[in-house]
Amino acid sequence: MSPTPPARRRRLGLPKRVFSQVLLMQVVIAAGVAVLATGLFLAPLSKQLDQEAMRRALAIAETTAADPQIAEGLLTTPPTKTGPVQKEAERIRRATRAEYIVVLDRNWVRWSHPTTSEVGHIVSTDPSDALAGKQVMEIDKGTLGRSARGKVPLRDSDGRIIGVVSVGIKYDSVRAELIGAIPELLAYAGGALAVGALAAWLISRRVQRQTRDLAFSDISALLAEREAMLHGIREGVVALDRSGRIRLLNDEAHRLLSIDDEAVGRSPEEALGEGRTADILGGRVTGTDLLTVRGQRVLIANRMPTDDGGAVATLRDRTELEQLGRELDSTRGLIDALRAQDHEHANRMHTLLGLLELEMYDDAVDFVGEVVGDHRATAEQVTEKIQDPLLAALLVGKATVAAERGVALWVSDRTQLPNRLIDPRGLVTIVGNLVDNALDAVAGTLHARVEIELRAEGRTAVLRVRDTGPGIPAEQRELVFADGWSTKKQPAHRKRGIGLSLVRRLAERQGGTASVGEAHGGGAEFTVVLPEALTEPEPEPALTAPVETSAEEESR
User: Mean pLDDT, the chain, as a whole number?
Assistant: First the structure.
């Protein structure tokens, strides 16, 4: 007989499809549970039947002991086969269908028994506990075989123990009840197994539809591809479940949001703290390409709901693009300032040329001195009050731009800042954003003026920027620090609403505050307080007394 061709051979094992595997496993589990439940039910059922039989025997014994004829007969008559104790005990036994009712005295002598020949003989089991006043329930073996017993003391009218009543229920009847319950129990187990198999089939069909009848290996490959894709892309991905809790973060999201895997299972507020970023992820702020700031990063967020009630949010890092946009704005402002300065310089040169042609040499000298003196005075005024070179250079440049825009930029007389800043670049960012914001606010107004006050109070730096613009309404004074909030027209290359948000975040990062109020005489006044922004001042060197020298030492 030729062997089976390889193409017709079949391997024994689990089926490949998810539907078949799930159905098979659930049917096996349902069958195992049914068998286990049957066994677990039979074990306590046997004990329960034994307990019921012993309690029934004890109840019959208590009823018999309470019969006054039993106690009276035990005290007044001898133990005989036809005595009153035997007759009354047999009557009760037949009425209760007990196997036996034995009445015995304190000498262990039987006064009643189903087998009349046993009357007058000593019992085969020890009744000491019952004679001591205790009630006894047990499964034991006596002259009539194995039985469930109940023993109680027999008392006279004065309450003295004069004997014991022992009642037995045939143990075979207890086992018969247990065996009789097994078919019914197996029927219930079979019904439960059939229901379980039907439920398993329905669940398997649902799983088949949801998995599109894929094999487990296909699902595993898809999950591996998804993990590789999520962690390989350079956009942050945050997945949330229907209750709004984070269930997935890729590597880029960890980096952009500065959180770790402990955030999984928590709400955005718990993981990130309250703020615009958490509101966007939670769906409380809606829209496309939403702008938010996380730490020092500028992010663009989009949120898409999913069919299961959750959502997937994507995050793009626009920090470098935002910096380039700001540099572009600064460059454009500088170009405009240079263009205006070039025009002004041409006018001045024409004036100087005219003075020279008119041979008004003294007036020409005075004119040149006046022009140069104005620039020198501005630079000296700034560097005298602000000793940090970065801040001084920034304000000198801002003063030039403000002058070309027709705005008077004034450094307050109260300004005094030593060169002891811990983070000068952070303060440069704060001052630059506030000054730019003030210049935009007063643009096109009459008598436009921006005043800067920057002073040190111990190790605390206090910054105030006042302008003569329209000011900010009281109900909007907190909104101006929100990410993406702006009243100005959006430029083509970037979004507004970042500068003041960065100011507050930089201040809070150093443990400080940023607020806005109304300036004296109208306009807005921004105040930034940065505690511990300066280092401790260095101690001044101690003055040493001059050393006296002798004439001989001087001659040497």
Answer: 78
Residues 438 and 476 in one domain: yes
Identify the top-confidence range among 35-49, 102-116, 129-143, 200-214: 102-116
Q: Which residues pair with 236 in a beta bridge?
A: 315
**pLDDT band for position 492 (cuts 50, 70, 90):** very low
- CA 212, 302, 271, 263: dihedral to nearest 10 degrees? 30
Shared-domain flag, residues 80 and 95: yes
Please indicate, yes or no, whether residues 310 and 327 belong to a single structural domain of this protein. Answer: no
Is residue 97 in a domain? yes
Tell me, what's the pLDDT at 494?
46
d(CA 455, CA 435): 16
What DSSP string describes 389-406? HHHHHHHHHHHHHHHHTT
Token pair 């952070």 is found at: 426
DSSP-assigned letter for residue 234? S
Per the structure, how many domains does the chain have?
Answer: 3
Contacts of 127 (CB under 8 A, 6+ apart): 104, 108, 151, 164, 166
Q: What integer pLDDT is reported at residue 378 of this predicted model?
A: 63
545: alpha, beta or left? (left if phi > 0; alpha if psi -120 to 50): beta
